[in-house]
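Hey,
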Amino acid sequence: MAISLYRTLRDHGQVVQDELADGFASEYAADPYRNYGLAMPRRGDHDPMDVKTDWLGP
């Protein structure tokens, strides 16, 4: 996850939350057995990247 944060900061100079979430999803998809915890496989039941959201709320 740290590499996704680094890449987002390198590319944008700040945290762009949608880009960071995309990076997390891409890294997980590349290696789903990397031991991210028991909840992560359940996230694969749907694609959370299908719907962008305002992470900070209204």
